[in-house]
Fold:
Amino acid sequence: MRNVANFVYETSTTTGTSDFTVAAVAGWQRFSDALGTGSSALFHYSIRHDSATEWEVGFGYMSDANTLVRSAVFKSSNSDALVDFAAGDKDVRCGPSIEWLRGGMAEASVLSGGGDDLEFAEDTASVPSGYSWVNQAAGTTWKQENGWGCITAAPPDAINAHNWRMLVRSVPTFSEIHARFIPVWQSAIGSGYCGLVFRDSATGKFSQFGGASATVNYYTAGNWTNPTTFGGWVTGPASILSPGYEYWRIVVNSSTDWDILTSPNGVGWVPVTLAFNPTTWQSIDQVGFGFAPENGAALEQVAFTIRYLRFIP
Structure:
Protein backbone atom coordinates (compact mmCIF):
# COMPACT_ATOMS: atom_id res chain seq x y z
CA MET A 1 0.00 0.00 0.00
CA ARG A 2 1.29 3.49 -0.79
CA ASN A 3 1.81 5.65 2.32
CA VAL A 4 2.44 9.16 3.51
CA ALA A 5 3.53 10.28 6.95
CA ASN A 6 3.85 13.58 8.80
CA PHE A 7 7.11 15.46 9.39
CA VAL A 8 9.33 13.16 7.34
CA TYR A 9 12.40 15.03 6.08
CA GLU A 10 15.98 14.05 5.31
CA THR A 11 18.85 15.44 3.25
CA SER A 12 21.09 13.99 0.57
CA THR A 13 24.14 14.82 -1.56
CA THR A 14 23.54 11.99 -4.05
CA THR A 15 24.04 12.86 -7.73
CA GLY A 16 22.67 11.36 -10.94
CA THR A 17 19.60 9.17 -11.44
CA SER A 18 20.50 6.42 -8.98
CA ASP A 19 19.03 5.56 -5.58
CA PHE A 20 19.41 8.32 -2.99
CA THR A 21 21.46 7.98 0.19
CA VAL A 22 19.64 10.05 2.79
CA ALA A 23 20.68 11.41 6.19
CA ALA A 24 18.62 12.20 9.27
CA VAL A 25 17.73 15.77 10.25
CA ALA A 26 17.32 16.66 13.91
CA GLY A 27 13.69 17.20 14.89
CA TRP A 28 12.25 15.32 11.89
CA GLN A 29 11.18 11.71 11.32
CA ARG A 30 13.24 9.45 9.10
CA PHE A 31 11.60 7.69 6.14
CA SER A 32 12.55 4.24 7.41
CA ASP A 33 11.20 4.93 10.92
CA ALA A 34 7.89 6.39 9.75
CA LEU A 35 7.22 4.21 6.72
CA GLY A 36 9.33 1.08 7.04
CA THR A 37 11.62 -0.58 4.52
CA GLY A 38 11.18 -2.97 1.60
CA SER A 39 9.55 -2.76 -1.84
CA SER A 40 6.05 -3.28 -0.45
CA ALA A 41 6.33 -0.12 1.71
CA LEU A 42 5.81 2.38 -1.11
CA PHE A 43 5.36 6.07 -0.34
CA HIS A 44 5.23 9.49 -1.97
CA TYR A 45 8.50 11.45 -2.01
CA SER A 46 9.77 14.80 -3.27
CA ILE A 47 13.34 15.87 -3.90
CA ARG A 48 14.52 19.48 -4.37
CA HIS A 49 18.05 20.67 -5.13
CA ASP A 50 18.96 23.52 -2.79
CA SER A 51 20.80 25.62 -5.37
CA ALA A 52 19.85 24.28 -8.83
CA THR A 53 16.50 24.25 -10.62
CA GLU A 54 16.07 20.52 -10.19
CA TRP A 55 13.15 18.77 -8.53
CA GLU A 56 11.29 15.49 -8.63
CA VAL A 57 8.04 14.05 -7.21
CA GLY A 58 7.41 10.33 -7.28
CA PHE A 59 6.80 7.02 -5.56
CA GLY A 60 9.55 5.03 -3.91
CA TYR A 61 10.60 2.91 -0.97
CA MET A 62 13.50 2.49 1.42
CA SER A 63 15.63 -0.55 0.61
CA ASP A 64 17.33 -0.02 3.97
CA ALA A 65 17.39 2.71 6.61
CA ASN A 66 19.50 5.04 4.47
CA THR A 67 18.63 4.27 0.81
CA LEU A 68 15.67 5.72 -1.11
CA VAL A 69 14.75 3.78 -4.25
CA ARG A 70 13.07 6.13 -6.77
CA SER A 71 10.59 3.64 -8.24
CA ALA A 72 8.39 5.87 -10.39
CA VAL A 73 8.48 9.58 -11.23
CA PHE A 74 5.19 11.46 -11.26
CA LYS A 75 6.38 14.98 -12.01
CA SER A 76 9.85 16.47 -12.39
CA SER A 77 11.96 19.29 -13.81
CA ASN A 78 13.22 16.79 -16.39
CA SER A 79 9.98 16.47 -18.42
CA ASP A 80 8.51 14.18 -15.74
CA ALA A 81 11.39 11.70 -15.98
CA LEU A 82 14.14 10.82 -13.49
CA VAL A 83 16.30 13.85 -12.78
CA ASP A 84 20.05 13.60 -13.25
CA PHE A 85 20.78 15.58 -10.10
CA ALA A 86 23.86 17.78 -10.00
CA ALA A 87 26.26 17.96 -7.06
CA GLY A 88 24.99 19.82 -4.02
CA ASP A 89 22.58 19.49 -1.13
CA LYS A 90 19.03 18.18 -1.66
CA ASP A 91 15.93 18.23 0.51
CA VAL A 92 14.03 14.92 0.55
CA ARG A 93 10.50 14.95 1.95
CA CYS A 94 7.42 12.72 2.13
CA GLY A 95 4.19 14.00 0.62
CA PRO A 96 1.90 13.49 -2.42
CA SER A 97 1.80 15.77 -5.44
CA ILE A 98 -1.17 18.04 -6.05
CA GLU A 99 -2.09 16.00 -9.17
CA TRP A 100 -2.39 12.84 -7.09
CA LEU A 101 -4.53 14.59 -4.49
CA ARG A 102 -6.86 15.74 -7.25
CA GLY A 103 -7.39 12.19 -8.40
CA GLY A 104 -4.55 10.87 -10.49
CA MET A 105 -2.89 12.73 -13.31
CA ALA A 106 -3.01 16.11 -14.91
CA GLU A 107 -5.89 15.87 -17.35
CA ALA A 108 -5.05 15.22 -20.99
CA SER A 109 -6.95 13.68 -23.91
CA VAL A 110 -4.81 10.60 -23.95
CA LEU A 111 -5.09 6.97 -22.97
CA SER A 112 -1.86 5.58 -21.60
CA GLY A 113 -1.44 1.95 -20.65
CA GLY A 114 2.25 1.27 -20.73
CA GLY A 115 3.48 1.70 -24.29
CA ASP A 116 2.12 3.85 -27.09
CA ASP A 117 -0.44 6.50 -26.23
CA LEU A 118 -3.89 6.53 -27.79
CA GLU A 119 -4.93 9.95 -29.08
CA PHE A 120 -8.69 10.13 -29.65
CA ALA A 121 -8.13 13.46 -31.40
CA GLU A 122 -6.99 11.58 -34.51
CA ASP A 123 -9.89 10.78 -36.87
CA THR A 124 -9.51 7.15 -37.94
CA ALA A 125 -11.33 3.84 -38.21
CA SER A 126 -8.18 1.87 -37.35
CA VAL A 127 -8.02 -0.01 -34.07
CA PRO A 128 -5.53 1.78 -31.80
CA SER A 129 -1.99 0.44 -31.81
CA GLY A 130 -1.48 -2.28 -29.22
CA TYR A 131 -5.20 -3.02 -28.82
CA SER A 132 -7.16 -6.02 -30.10
CA TRP A 133 -10.80 -7.11 -30.10
CA VAL A 134 -12.31 -9.53 -27.62
CA ASN A 135 -15.68 -10.79 -28.86
CA GLN A 136 -15.93 -8.30 -31.71
CA ALA A 137 -18.95 -10.09 -33.22
CA ALA A 138 -20.44 -9.41 -36.64
CA GLY A 139 -21.21 -5.80 -37.38
CA THR A 140 -19.15 -4.36 -34.51
CA THR A 141 -16.99 -1.44 -35.61
CA TRP A 142 -14.65 1.11 -34.09
CA LYS A 143 -13.86 4.68 -35.06
CA GLN A 144 -12.53 7.77 -33.38
CA GLU A 145 -13.20 11.35 -34.38
CA ASN A 146 -13.42 14.82 -32.89
CA GLY A 147 -11.82 13.64 -29.67
CA TRP A 148 -14.22 10.71 -29.10
CA GLY A 149 -13.88 6.96 -29.48
CA CYS A 150 -16.98 5.20 -30.79
CA ILE A 151 -18.15 1.54 -30.78
CA THR A 152 -21.13 0.49 -32.92
CA ALA A 153 -22.64 -2.94 -32.27
CA ALA A 154 -25.85 -4.97 -32.53
CA PRO A 155 -27.50 -6.09 -29.28
CA PRO A 156 -27.73 -9.83 -28.46
CA ASP A 157 -30.90 -11.76 -29.23
CA ALA A 158 -31.94 -12.22 -25.61
CA ILE A 159 -33.03 -9.21 -23.60
CA ASN A 160 -30.54 -8.35 -20.83
CA ALA A 161 -28.07 -10.91 -22.18
CA HIS A 162 -25.42 -8.20 -22.46
CA ASN A 163 -22.52 -9.63 -24.53
CA TRP A 164 -19.62 -7.21 -24.20
CA ARG A 165 -17.48 -6.11 -27.14
CA MET A 166 -14.05 -5.02 -25.94
CA LEU A 167 -10.80 -3.55 -27.20
CA VAL A 168 -8.01 -4.46 -24.78
CA ARG A 169 -4.26 -4.40 -24.33
CA SER A 170 -1.82 -5.80 -21.78
CA VAL A 171 -1.12 -3.80 -18.64
CA PRO A 172 2.07 -3.01 -16.74
CA THR A 173 2.57 -3.98 -13.10
CA PHE A 174 0.61 -1.62 -10.88
CA SER A 175 -0.41 -0.91 -7.31
CA GLU A 176 -2.91 1.76 -8.28
CA ILE A 177 -4.95 2.72 -11.37
CA HIS A 178 -6.30 6.23 -11.97
CA ALA A 179 -8.82 6.93 -14.73
CA ARG A 180 -11.46 9.32 -16.01
CA PHE A 181 -14.08 7.95 -18.43
CA ILE A 182 -16.81 10.12 -20.01
CA PRO A 183 -19.50 8.38 -22.16
CA VAL A 184 -22.36 9.63 -24.33
CA TRP A 185 -24.94 7.53 -26.19
CA GLN A 186 -25.21 8.19 -29.92
CA SER A 187 -28.34 6.09 -30.57
CA ALA A 188 -31.82 7.52 -30.09
CA ILE A 189 -33.05 4.02 -29.20
CA GLY A 190 -31.42 1.45 -27.02
CA SER A 191 -29.49 1.06 -23.82
CA GLY A 192 -26.67 -0.97 -22.37
CA TYR A 193 -23.42 -0.62 -20.52
CA CYS A 194 -20.09 0.89 -21.48
CA GLY A 195 -16.90 1.64 -19.69
CA LEU A 196 -13.33 0.89 -18.84
CA VAL A 197 -12.68 -2.85 -18.81
CA PHE A 198 -10.17 -4.66 -16.58
CA ARG A 199 -9.84 -8.30 -17.64
CA ASP A 200 -8.24 -11.62 -16.75
CA SER A 201 -7.33 -13.18 -20.10
CA ALA A 202 -6.97 -16.68 -18.61
CA THR A 203 -10.53 -16.92 -17.24
CA GLY A 204 -12.29 -14.32 -19.39
CA LYS A 205 -13.70 -12.62 -16.30
CA PHE A 206 -13.62 -8.83 -16.16
CA SER A 207 -14.77 -5.74 -14.30
CA GLN A 208 -16.34 -2.63 -15.82
CA PHE A 209 -16.44 0.94 -14.59
CA GLY A 210 -18.45 3.45 -16.60
CA GLY A 211 -21.94 4.42 -17.66
CA ALA A 212 -25.30 2.83 -18.34
CA SER A 213 -28.60 3.54 -20.15
CA ALA A 214 -29.26 5.48 -23.31
CA THR A 215 -29.05 8.79 -21.48
CA VAL A 216 -26.05 7.86 -19.30
CA ASN A 217 -28.11 9.03 -16.33
CA TYR A 218 -26.25 6.81 -13.91
CA TYR A 219 -22.79 5.34 -13.63
CA THR A 220 -22.02 1.71 -12.90
CA ALA A 221 -19.40 -0.72 -11.69
CA GLY A 222 -19.82 -4.43 -12.35
CA ASN A 223 -18.10 -7.81 -12.21
CA TRP A 224 -18.77 -10.07 -15.22
CA THR A 225 -17.80 -13.74 -15.31
CA ASN A 226 -19.05 -15.57 -18.40
CA PRO A 227 -16.28 -16.01 -21.03
CA THR A 228 -18.76 -17.55 -23.52
CA THR A 229 -21.52 -14.95 -23.59
CA PHE A 230 -19.25 -12.15 -22.32
CA GLY A 231 -21.80 -11.21 -19.71
CA GLY A 232 -23.07 -12.84 -16.54
CA TRP A 233 -22.64 -10.24 -13.85
CA VAL A 234 -21.81 -11.45 -10.37
CA THR A 235 -22.30 -8.59 -7.96
CA GLY A 236 -23.38 -5.76 -10.15
CA PRO A 237 -23.65 -3.60 -11.88
CA ALA A 238 -23.75 -1.42 -8.80
CA SER A 239 -25.56 1.78 -9.71
CA ILE A 240 -24.10 5.11 -8.69
CA LEU A 241 -26.34 8.15 -8.56
CA SER A 242 -25.89 11.01 -10.98
CA PRO A 243 -24.29 13.43 -11.55
CA GLY A 244 -21.89 11.33 -13.53
CA TYR A 245 -19.12 9.76 -11.49
CA GLU A 246 -16.43 9.96 -14.16
CA TYR A 247 -13.34 9.52 -11.99
CA TRP A 248 -12.13 6.07 -10.86
CA ARG A 249 -9.34 4.74 -8.66
CA ILE A 250 -8.37 1.13 -8.00
CA VAL A 251 -5.93 0.70 -5.11
CA VAL A 252 -4.17 -2.61 -4.41
CA ASN A 253 -3.46 -2.79 -0.68
CA SER A 254 -2.48 -6.47 -0.83
CA SER A 255 -3.22 -9.55 -2.93
CA THR A 256 -6.53 -10.00 -1.10
CA ASP A 257 -7.41 -6.38 -0.32
CA TRP A 258 -8.40 -3.97 -3.10
CA ASP A 259 -10.15 -0.61 -2.77
CA ILE A 260 -12.34 0.72 -5.62
CA LEU A 261 -13.23 4.40 -5.41
CA THR A 262 -15.19 6.80 -7.60
CA SER A 263 -15.76 10.54 -7.67
CA PRO A 264 -17.80 13.14 -9.60
CA ASN A 265 -14.97 15.67 -9.51
CA GLY A 266 -11.69 13.89 -8.77
CA VAL A 267 -11.56 15.32 -5.24
CA GLY A 268 -14.21 13.69 -3.02
CA TRP A 269 -13.96 9.89 -3.27
CA VAL A 270 -16.67 7.31 -2.52
CA PRO A 271 -15.96 3.57 -2.11
CA VAL A 272 -17.67 1.20 -4.55
CA THR A 273 -18.99 -1.90 -2.80
CA LEU A 274 -18.30 -4.99 -4.90
CA ALA A 275 -17.35 -8.56 -4.07
CA PHE A 276 -14.08 -7.93 -5.87
CA ASN A 277 -11.44 -10.41 -4.79
CA PRO A 278 -8.83 -10.99 -7.49
CA THR A 279 -7.33 -14.01 -5.72
CA THR A 280 -10.59 -15.97 -5.89
CA TRP A 281 -12.00 -15.01 -9.27
CA GLN A 282 -9.77 -12.61 -11.15
CA SER A 283 -6.39 -11.08 -11.72
CA ILE A 284 -5.91 -8.19 -14.13
CA ASP A 285 -3.59 -8.55 -17.11
CA GLN A 286 -5.59 -6.61 -19.74
CA VAL A 287 -7.24 -3.22 -19.82
CA GLY A 288 -9.32 -1.41 -22.39
CA PHE A 289 -12.85 -0.23 -23.07
CA GLY A 290 -16.04 -1.88 -24.17
CA PHE A 291 -19.76 -1.73 -24.89
CA ALA A 292 -22.62 -4.13 -24.08
CA PRO A 293 -25.71 -3.05 -26.08
CA GLU A 294 -29.13 -4.38 -25.13
CA ASN A 295 -32.88 -3.96 -25.62
CA GLY A 296 -32.63 -1.69 -28.60
CA ALA A 297 -32.24 -1.06 -32.28
CA ALA A 298 -30.48 -3.25 -34.82
CA LEU A 299 -27.36 -1.18 -34.26
CA GLU A 300 -26.48 0.84 -31.19
CA GLN A 301 -23.61 3.22 -30.72
CA VAL A 302 -21.77 4.65 -27.75
CA ALA A 303 -19.08 7.32 -27.83
CA PHE A 304 -16.68 8.16 -25.03
CA THR A 305 -13.48 9.94 -24.21
CA ILE A 306 -10.84 8.87 -21.71
CA ARG A 307 -9.05 11.84 -20.22
CA TYR A 308 -6.45 9.67 -18.54
CA LEU A 309 -5.81 6.04 -17.68
CA ARG A 310 -2.60 5.59 -15.73
CA PHE A 311 -0.95 2.71 -13.91
CA ILE A 312 1.10 3.56 -10.83
CA PRO A 313 3.82 1.02 -9.98
